[in-house]
Every structure is written in structure tokens, then in C-alpha cells.
Design a protein that fits this description.
Layout: H1 9-15, H2 37-49, E1 56-62, E2 64-65, E3 78-79, H3 82-100, E4 109-116, H4 124-137, E5 147-152, H5 161-168, E6 172-178, H6 182-188, H7 194-206, E7 211-218, H8 225-238, E8 242-247, H9 255-259, H10 266-282, E9 286-289, E10 292-294, H11 299-305, E11 310-312, E12 315-317, E13 323-327, E14 332-335, E15 338-342, H12 346-354, E16 360-364, H13 368-382, E17 385-387, H14 388-395, H15 399-402, H16 404-415, E18 419-421, E19 425-428, H17 430-433, H18 436-440, H19 451-458
Parallel strand pairs: 1-4, 1-13, 2-3, 4-5, 5-6, 6-7, 7-8
Antiparallel strand pairs: 8-10, 9-10, 11-12, 14-15, 15-16, 17-19, 18-19
Helix pairs in contact: 3-4, 3-12, 4-5, 8-10
The structure holds iron/sulfur cluster (SF4).
Keywords: 4Fe-4S, Cytoplasm, Iron, Iron-sulfur, Metal-binding, Oxidoreductase, Porphyrin biosynthesis, S-adenosyl-L-methionine
Subunit structure: Monomer.
Catalytic activity: coproporphyrinogen III + 2 S-adenosyl-L-methionine = protoporphyrinogen IX + 2 5'-deoxyadenosine + 2 L-methionine + 2 CO2
């Protein structure tokens, strides 16, 4: 379904509150340390025993960077030194061997992303070693359906590496551009000229990368509508398949927050978001949701049109529901319906692997109510609608009874034109599409403040 844009600043301002991005449900803050490596072993085994096992996906986290950016709010980042990076790779390979032994070998990894941090702190030789290790212990899909992506720091990558990375088997690159507006760049001490970005994109196209993505941050000091508009004009000329906006988090601690009072006020950041959505959709991009855009022929936009767009631990995906393996310090896996997160701090990650254990730190095993709510939230965030009959069939409930308090709570949002409550479905309107996680929060049992009302209704 293509969605027209509908940006109403007053409406957006009224409902814009901090809300989870729902790459996991329940959110990470609810993960607990009672979930252990033993639980993960059982989940992996159960996933193999499924009559039709799900496809496998994997995310590898490389928490290493060349330097600490001023705006960084990522936990557990260490600085690149040849020894530090080589040591991390050694442990990562140990974890891959342990994890690979858990999964049936007729389940190759079909979707792989390597992110961080700055994964290109690993040399081409080290990346080749990493991919070979994965291939040895899991198998990596080689066919046209494979999706193998790498996060790139455009400030620290040589043009010549594009061809090598393509030869290694990567077919999707994500450029962490962050800002192209010189004033915003000065604020975060990252200076990337548009000319350099053009060179990098040209080199990636020559190397035949199928999908290129660019990430930008909104809300940085000095960012102006004119600066953003110029940056987006330059970007749309390059036409990356995917563009992502991330709002600079004003709730997470970061050095930028401590040292700079010039961060944009929420209203100004919202106005930038609205202007960005309008400009990109006018240029032909499809807004998937959560500030993520795709060119209409990109797999994500096609999946959205076909009602098959999913949201998982890495954001939007066109891949069918997968068992998702998290590898590396702090990585999150989603296996057999439950979440598992590795130790975040490198010393803890290393100690567990030295003992021959999986480095699982914490997780969340979902009960029936969690699975139901996860299903509803994923449908809202992916398809933009929930068909009650589908949910009732999958979870054996009567939607209007089970979610009676939520449907009452949605009424004011319906009156404000954010959702449409039909007889058998809940739909996000174009305006609601811009606030989808705020709307999804109503179905989040830990945030929706509806439990007392539910208990009253049950009495
Ligand atoms: S490249 Fe990303 S992860 Fe690394 S320091 Fe900068 S913002 Fe943080």
C-alpha cells in the first residue's frame, strides 16, 4: 500500500512522546538475567525441530570504531587498535563455532548484517576470515536471494575497498553519513563532503552493489530546514535505495548532550522530520515507517506494498519470519520466538568464551500474552494494519474482547484521525503512519497503563 504523506505539525506535536522503536517486543529494558545460555540451547534445538524450520538470519556486532563520535550513544564501543580488533575477531570466531554447532546444517544463513560500531575496522582479510568461518559453521546462502550487508563509515573507507567488499560477497552497504549540512557536521565533528559521498556511491555502483542505504540524524545542533533540504537534494540525486532518519536521542546520555546546549528543540526536530518526509516522498521514495524510506523498486518497498514488511531486531526486513542469531558482544538474537542478548562489555564476553560457554547475558522468554501483543505491534509497524480475524486465528482469542481496553484507548486517536477502527481491522491513517510506535505503545502491556482497567473489567 503506497501511503500519501500527511504531516500535521500540531497533531504530531500533540502525540510525539518518547516511544520505543519496537525492534523487539518486549523492549530490551525488560530483558532479564534469569534467561541463560541453557535456555538458548533449548531454543536453538526447538527451532531445528520445527516441522518447517524458519530461515536463519544473523547479525554480527563489531563494537569497534576509529574514534568516538561526539553524538555517539552506542554502549560498549572500544577504539580500534590492530591488537584489539584482531583479539575481538578471534573471540567472535569462537562464538560462531559454538553457535554453528547448535543449528542443523541444512539451514544456511540467508540474511547477514555486520554492523557496529565500524565493522570496516576489520581489514578485507579479516572480513574474509569472518565470512569463511560463518560459511564453515553455518553455511551462507550464495544465491540471488542472499542479503549480506555491511555498515560503512564513509569517513574511513578507501574507494578501492568497494570492489573487494563486493568480491567477498556483500551485496548491500549502509553508509553512516549522519549529516551533510556543514553546520550540523561541525557540531558532531564529522566532515564529509558531498563530492566524497558521490565518489563512494559511484565506486559502490561500479562494484555492482544491489542496495545502498544512507543514514542521517535529525535534531543536531545547527541543523536547519535549508541545510537538510540541500542534503536531501544531493542524496536523492544519488538515489540510494534506502534512506533512514534517526532522531538524535535527547533521553540517552551522550557527550553531545553534556557539552552542547544547541541541540534542536523537540518542535524544531519534528519540523525537520516533517520537511524531510515531505521532500523524500515528493522525490519518489516510499516511507516505510519510523523515518525509514525505500525506493519503490527496493525489496522493502515491494514487501510493504504486498503486506509482507516485517519488523525485527534490525528494523525493517522483507525476509519471511526468521530465527535470528545475534553474534558478537551485545548482539541480540531472536530464536524460537524468544530474545537472547550477549554480554555487552568485552571482558565479560571474553571470559564466557574462555570458559567454553555461550556469552548469553540476558533475554526474554515470551508467554502467550507477549506473543500476541508482539504479533499486533509487528503488524502495525510493518503492514500498518491489524486484521482481527488473522490475530484471532493465530492466537485463539476474540480480539474485541481481549483488547477491549486498548480499543477504548484508541478512540481519541481515531477522533484525531490517526487510526481507523473498522469492524474487523485497525488501520493506521497516513497521519498515524508517522506516529506508529506511539500508537503501538497502546498494545505494550508494560507501557500502556491499561492493566488496572483490564483487571477492573475482569472483576
Ligand atoms: S561510528 Fe557510530 S558507533 Fe562508532 S563512535 Fe561514531 S556514532 Fe558511535
Amino acid at each position: 500500500m503506497d501511503r500519501p504523506t500527511s504531516f500535521d505539525p500540531a497533531l504530531l506535536g500533540k502525540y510525539d512522546q518518547p516511544a520505543p522503536r519496537y525492534v523487539t517486543y518486549p523492549r530490551r529494558a525488560r530483558f532479564c538475567e534469569a534467561v541463560s545460555a541453557a535456555d538458548y540451547l533449548q531454543a536453538a534445538q526447538a527451532s531445528n525441530e520445527d516441522p518447517i524450520p524458519k530461515p536463519l538470519a544473523a547479525y554480527i556486532h563489531v563494537p569497534i570504531c576509529h574514534r568516538r563520535c561526539r553524538h555517539c550513544t552506542v554502549d560498549g564501543i572500544v577504539m580500534h587498535e590492530p591488537d584489539t580488533t584482531a583479539r575481538y575477531l578471534t573471540y567472535l570466531k569462537r562464538e560462531i563455532a559454538l553457535q554453528g554447532a547448535l543449528y542443523d546444517h541444512d539451514r544456511p544463513i540467508e540474511r547477514l548484517s555486520i554492523g557496529g560500531g565500524t565493522p570496516t575496522c576489520l581489514s578485507d582479510v579479516q572480513l574474509a576470515d569472518l565470512l569463511n568461518t560463518l560459511h564453515r559453521h553455518f553455511g551462507l546462502e550464495k544465491g540471488p536471494s542472499r542479503d549480506v550487508s555491511l555498515q560503512i563509515d564513509p569517513l574511513n573507507i578507501a574507494l578501492e575497498r568497494m570492489a573487494t567488499l563486493a568480491a567477498l560477497g556483500f551485496n548491500r552497504l549502509n553508509f553512516g553519513v549522519r549529516a551533510l549540512d556543514p553546520r550540523a557536521q561541525r557540531a558532531i565533528d564529522r566532515s564529509l563532503g558531498v563530492d566524497r559521498l558521490v565518489e563512494l556511491v559511484d565506486a559502490a555502483r561500479r562494484a555492482r552493489f544491489q542496495t545502498l542505504g544512507v543514514d542521517l540524524i535529525l535534531g543536531l545542533p545547527g541543523q536547519s530546514p535549508q541545510g537538510l533540504s540541500a542534503a536531501l537534494r544531493a542524496l536523492t540525486e544519488l538515489r540510494p535505495e534506502r534512506i533512514g532518519f534517526y532522531r538524535h536521542s535527547q533521553t540517552q546520555p551522550g557527550r553531545l548532550l553534556a557539552s552542547d546546549a544547541g541541540l534542536l528543540l523537540r518542535e524544531a526536530a519534528l519540523a525537520l522530520f516533517g520537511a524531510g518526509v515531505t521532500q523524500l516522498t515528493a522525490a519518489g521514495y516510499v516511507h516505510l515507517g519510523m523515518g525509514q524510506f525505500a525506493w519503490p523498486t527496493d525489496a522493502l518497498a515491494v514487501a510493504q506494498r504486498n503486506g509482507k514488511l516485517l519488523r525485527d531486531t534490525e528494523g525493517y526486513t522483507a525476509q519471511a519470519d526468521a530465527d535470528h542469531i545475534g553474534l558478537g558482544a551485545g548482539a541480540i538474537g531472536h530464536v524460537n520466538g524468544n530474545y537472547y542478548q550477549n554480554a555487552l562489555a568485552l571482558p565479560r564476553y571474553y571470559v564466557r568464551l574462555d570458559a567454553g560457554d555461550l556469552p548469553i547475558w540476558r533475554g526474554f522468554e515470551l508467554g502467550a500474552d507477549d506473543l500476541l501483543r508482539q504479533d499486533v505491534i509487528r503488524r502495525l509497524m510493518g503492514e500498518g494494519r491489524v486484521r482481527f480475524a488473522d490475530v484471532e486465528r493465530r492466537h485463539r482469542i476474540v480480539f474485541r474482547n481481549y483488547f477491549a481496553p486498548e480499543l477504548v484507548a484508541l478512540q481519541p486517536l481515531a477522533e484525531d484521525g490517526l487510526v481507523e477502527l473498522q469492524r474487523g481491522a485497525l488501520l493506521l491513517t497516513p497521519a498515524g503512519h508517522l506516529l506508529m510506535n506511539r500508537i503501538a505503545m497502546i498494545f505494550d502491556s508494560s507501557l500502556n497503563e491499561l492493566q488496572p482497567r483490564r483487571l477492573q473489567m475482569l472483576r
